[in-house]
């Protein structure tokens, strides 16, 4: 039985189809979840995709966090449901206080779209078990408000407890504190990152397939057996 | 071609002010009949005296103020194509025979059959004047407008491209206009979730007071799911849905394009529409679910001329009549007068024709997406468009007279006196580089010049990954999108124009633009199928400009016939000038191609170690309108390169077949900057060095910098070399072996002339735009 992975569509979600494709390529069963529907339909994990939920009016992710589906996601995440927030999804997770800190406008005040080099700092989450610590990845980054910020104590705590999951290499693309690209919660089941692993799952359409293991880690499928 | 969001003719006054005087008393049909002699601001709204008289004949009375508003926008240059129509007919008259064209010119966008039951619709459109006044919103709503045109055909929009032209890179105003336009194109497209896969950016003095912002959108649908803008079936309901109607953009179709920008003051800003990409994203998803459930009889987007255009066009193309109650239009600003409601260009609105039994299902889907939807009228077979306001009849007109029977003008055409002087001063005495060191200096200067430099400062602000089907994006020769994950069928698109060529010879220049876009598509391995064009010119009232226009259209129509690629639609933008000085004529040409298997696509960069570099085509001493003459000597003159469509077709065939059969490892079209620029780009994009031996017996300067058309640079894996050269020989395509790719090499080594490191080249190439804006 393929693992059922829910992908939430808010009004204004953009990368929801891409997240579903990534789940399928990783051997999972992608289940669409609608923002206005509190039911999670027995999924084993949830992805909050990239985009501009509710137009990102007020603040990125600020409105999405109050949607009916998020009430269910927040409860389930506290009970250990694996949740992956990508870009706008990461912003929603911070607004929902499932992850600490916040994402603010890029230092150069411009939208940045690039193939970003990253280093995996921690593999202790159901989304990153397939990576090696210290491994370098190339994954697209595309965001206007991607600078991760938090107070010094939070940052120190994240570092000390191994909760910084991926870090930017080379030039910091957006002004994120301590080059942080993604973090997880204490239990490890909730992960948020700004780069888009769902856009690095096919060599044809991305910089490579470095992002696929985020999804394979969860589905437990064998990458070699799934190659098309 | 139909109406869209621009502007145009020779109006001189703010329409809103003109209408203001009318708002005191409601000008009903009955009042109009009673007061035949009441003065009306027809001239201020851009209507000529004979046009205004014609309205009296059509209506058998004077128009009401609302009718005047409708006719003034529908008969504007922008909506009616009254000056260009007689020329544009050639696109139909000379159209090559093809089975691929499912919907041709005249609808919101053309539709092309790309095989396996898939159809693709695409169109390019200008938003030049608003983008100068308010760069961010002007460019953003330019993207929004063309995306709605594509959506209206029943298609899911899948990609955008943009063709941008600005004043000199170092001009003070470029620092205002360029970042604003780029942020607007990106801000809207990124938020819609449409990958931006290509386009062009160039700089010239002539655009300093009149930048060009042309946006292309492409969409995909099944061949049996095409929707048309027809208000059929008496008794069917007219539903307005999407954003509420506000005061923005009122008179946009009349005000901004007064003959020049000299008097464009901040006070005119409200005439530029304001975009809300989130509203449009939701509208797209809502429409696609409505289409999938087959709930509409006809559909039209609201662009230029807003409700005036949508109601008259739907009625004219359908059963012929329509009754509308304007009181039912949802408003953002309740103080709007009916004239303003009719002229408002508020964005993100659509109009659908729905049968009564489908209305509940239609409204339910709008409810799901939280899109406001309101029934505002019904289809009739009365052949009259009737509108009421507070119960009074304020519009009663035959819709075809507004939408289809605008006046048509044969404007005077005269070849400018100085045209020969431009051709005769051909610059053949301009000093040329004499030795290798000179050539290297020239190369570095060219590579770092604004038009040839890397544009990633701009394109890195555009999302090219979203939707997960982008196979190629800028800086590749063409953008490529996978349509079908199961079969790998895909499309490629490129947009091109060199306005300097077109200034010297508008007929040849338009053909060179077509040839380059065609070649760029073929370079990736896709077969060119169809064309969309955006014709940016000065004032049609200037006989010299009209000559440029007529020649460019004739050249493009002849070229499309020769290449077998029909024009499917497009847009004309006149009055692009500063004072009385027109822009260089800029007919931007977009070519769409199809590829059976996107995994066979050819990339631009060198990458295969030891691959042999071939130059395809013939190089002549052609520097008229060249980048070299501009960058090194600030000179424009002479004849542009010769166009040979037989050669272009042959070259395309070889590139496409070689791509399919795996004979080439990379391919790059030769254009501005010639072979030198192509070598630099293929090296830098592939991060690979190359050793090059220029063809014997040819002046190294001509070999490196000539801009002869019909050429491409390819690298061929050694194992395929014999098959490749046999193919070229058998087809009769000139091919010269000029070097080898060396992945480990850090130089571009032009033997006997110079060697320059990739690091130095990259710094020069990438530095120009970054240094200006970062």
Describe the protein in words.
- The complex is a heterodimer of chains A (228) and B (774).
- Chain A has 228 residues and is α/β, with parallel strands linked by helices.
- Chain A is built from 6 helices and 11 strands.
- Helix content of chain A is 22%, strand content 25%.
- In chain A, the strands form 2 sheets. Chain A has a 9-stranded mixed β-sheet, sandwiched between helices. A two-stranded antiparallel ribbon of chain A has the order 5-8.
- Chain A is globular, with a radius of gyration of 16 Å.
- Chain B has 774 residues and is α+β, with helices and mostly antiparallel strands.
- Helices cover 35% and strands 22% of the residues of chain B.
- Chain B contains 26 helices and 28 strands.
- Chain B has a 7-stranded mixed β-sheet with strand order 8-10-7-11-9-12-13.
- Chain B is globular.
- The two termini of chain B are 40 Å apart.
- Mean pLDDT of chain B is 92; it is low at 1-23 and 252-269.
- Classes of the chains: A alpha/beta (228), B alpha+beta (774).
- Chain A binds chain B through residues 11-12, 14-15, 17-18, 21, 50-52, 54-57, 108, 110-114, 140, 142, 144, 196, 198-199, 201-202, 204-206, and chain B through 183, 186-187, 190-193, 276-279, 281-282, 285, 369-370, 459-471, 482, 485, 598-599, 774.
């Amino acid at each position: 039985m393929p693992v059922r992975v829910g992908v939430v569509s808010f009004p204004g979600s953009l990368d929801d189809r891409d997240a579903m494709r990534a789940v399928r390529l990783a051997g999972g069963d992608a289940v669409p979840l609608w923002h206005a529907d509190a039911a999670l339909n027995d999924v084993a994990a949830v992805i909050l995709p990239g985009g501009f939920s509710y137009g990102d009016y007020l603040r990125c992710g600020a409105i999405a966090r109050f949607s009916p589906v998020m009430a269910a996601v927040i409860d389930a995440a506290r009970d250990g449901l694996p949740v992956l927030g990508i870009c706008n999804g990461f912003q929603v997770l911070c607004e929902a206080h499932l992850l600490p800190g916040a994402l603010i406008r890029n230092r150069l005040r411009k939208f940045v779209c690039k193939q970003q080099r990253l280093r995996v700092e921690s593999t202790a989450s159901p989304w990153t078990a397939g990576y090696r610590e210290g491994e370098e990845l190339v994954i697209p980054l595309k965001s206007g408000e991607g600078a991760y910020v938090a107070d010094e104590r939070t940052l120190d705590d994240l570092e000390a407890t191994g909760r910084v999951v991926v870090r930017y290499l080379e030039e910091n693309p957006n002004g994120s504190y301590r080059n942080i690209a993604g973090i997880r919660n204490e239990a490890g089941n909730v992960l948020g990152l700004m780069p888009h692993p769902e856009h690095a799952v096919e060599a044809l359409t991305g910089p490579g397939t470095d992002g696929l293991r985020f999804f394979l880690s969860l589905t437990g499928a064998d990458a070699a057996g799934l190659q098309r | 071609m139909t109406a869209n969001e621009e502007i145009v003719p020779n109006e001189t006054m703010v329409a809103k002010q003109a209408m203001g005087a009318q708002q005191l008393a409601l000008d009903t049909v009955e009042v109009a009949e009673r007061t035949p002699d009441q003065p009306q601001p027809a001239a201020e709204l851009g209507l000529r005296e004979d046009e205004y008289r014609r309205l009296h004949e059509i209506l058998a009375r004077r128009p009401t103020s609302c009718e005047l508003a409708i006719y003034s926008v529908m008969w504007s240059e922008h909506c009616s194509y009254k000056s260009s129509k007689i020329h544009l007919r050639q696109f139909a008259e000379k159209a090559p025979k093809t089975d691929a064209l499912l919907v041709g010119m005249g609808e919101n966008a053309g539709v092309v059959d790309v095989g396996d039951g898939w159809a693709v619709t695409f169109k390019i459109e200008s938003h030049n004047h608003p983008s100068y006044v308010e760069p961010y919103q002007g460019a953003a709503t330019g993207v929004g407008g063309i995306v709605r045109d594509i959506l209206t055909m029943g298609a899911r929009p899948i990609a955008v491209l943009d063709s941008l032209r600005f004043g000199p890179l170092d001009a003070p105003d470029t620092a205002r206009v360029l970042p604003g336009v780029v942020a607007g194109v990106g801000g809207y497209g990124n938020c819609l979730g449409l990958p931006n896969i290509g386009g062009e950016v160039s700089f010239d003095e002539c655009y300093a007071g009149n930048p060009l912002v042309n946006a292309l959108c492409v969409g995909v649908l099944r061949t049996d799911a095409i929707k048309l803008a027809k208000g059929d079936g008496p008794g069917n309901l007219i539903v307005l849905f999407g954003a509420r109607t506000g005061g923005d953009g009122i008179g946009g179709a009349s005000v901004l394009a007064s003959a020049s920008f000299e008097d464009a003051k901040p006070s005119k800003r409200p005439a530029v529409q304001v975009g809300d990409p989130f509203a449009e994203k939701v509208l797209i998803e809502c429409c696609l679910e409505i289409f999938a459930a087959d709930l509409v009889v006809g559909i039209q987007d609201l662009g230029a001329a807003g409700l005036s255009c949508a109601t008259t066009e739907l009625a004219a193309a359908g059963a012929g009549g329509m009754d509308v109650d304007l009181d039912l239009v949802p408003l953002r600003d309740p103080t709007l007068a009916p004239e303003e409601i009719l002229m408002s260009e508020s964005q993100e609105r659509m109009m659908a024709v729905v049968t009564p039994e489908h209305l509940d299902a239609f409204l339910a889907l709008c409810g799901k997406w939280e899109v406001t939807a309101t029934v505002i009228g019904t289809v009739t077979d009365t052949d009259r468009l009737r509108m009421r306001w507070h119960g009074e009849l304020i519009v009663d007109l035959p819709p075809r007279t507004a939408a289809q029977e605008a006046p048509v003008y044969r404007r005077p055409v005269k070849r400018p006196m100085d045209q020969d002087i431009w051709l005769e001063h051909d610059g053949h005495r301009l000093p040329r580089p004499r030795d290798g060191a000179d050539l290297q200096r020239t190369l570095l200067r060219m590579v770092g010049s604004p038009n040839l430099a890397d544009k990633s400062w701009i394109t890195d602000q555009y999302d090219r990954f979203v939707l997960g089907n982008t196979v190629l994006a800028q800086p590749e020769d063409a953008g490529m999108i996978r349509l079908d994950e199961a079969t790998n069928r895909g499309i490629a698109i490129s947009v091109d124009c060199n306005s300097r060529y077109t200034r010297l010879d508008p007929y040849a220049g338009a053909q060179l633009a077509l040839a380059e876009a065609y070649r760029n598509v073929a370079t990736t391995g896709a077969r060119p199928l169809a064309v969309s064009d955006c014709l940016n010119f000065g004032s049609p009232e200037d006989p010299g400009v009209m000559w440029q226009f007529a020649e460019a259209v004739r050249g493009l129509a002849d070229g499309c016939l020769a290449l077998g690629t029909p024009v499917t639609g497009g847009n004309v933008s006149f009055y692009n000038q500063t004072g009385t000085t027109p822009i260089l004529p800029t007919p931007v040409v977009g070519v769409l191609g199809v590829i059976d298997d996107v995994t066979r696509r050819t990339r631009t960069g060198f990458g295969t170690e030891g691959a042999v570099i071939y130059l395809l085509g013939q190089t002549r001493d052609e520097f008229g309108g060249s980048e070299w003459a501009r960058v090194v000597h600030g000179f424009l003159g002479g004849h542009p390169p010769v166009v040979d469509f037989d050669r272009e077709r042959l070259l395309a065939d070889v590139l496409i077949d070689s791509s399919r059969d795996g004979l080439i490892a990379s391919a790059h079209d030769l254009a501005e900057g010639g072979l030198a620029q192509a070598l630099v780009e293929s090296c830098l994009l592939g991060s690979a060095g190359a050793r090059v031996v220029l063809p014997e017996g040819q002046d190294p300067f001509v070999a490196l910098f000539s801009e002869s058309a019909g050429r491409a640079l390819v690298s061929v894996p050694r194992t395929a070399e014999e098959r490749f050269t046999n193919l070229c020989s058998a087809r009769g395509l000139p091919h010269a072996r000029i070097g080898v790719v060396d992945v480990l090499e850090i130089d571009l080594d032009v033997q006997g002339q110079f060697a320059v490191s990739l690091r130095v080249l990259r710094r020069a190439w990438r530095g120009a735009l970054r240094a200006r804006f970062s």
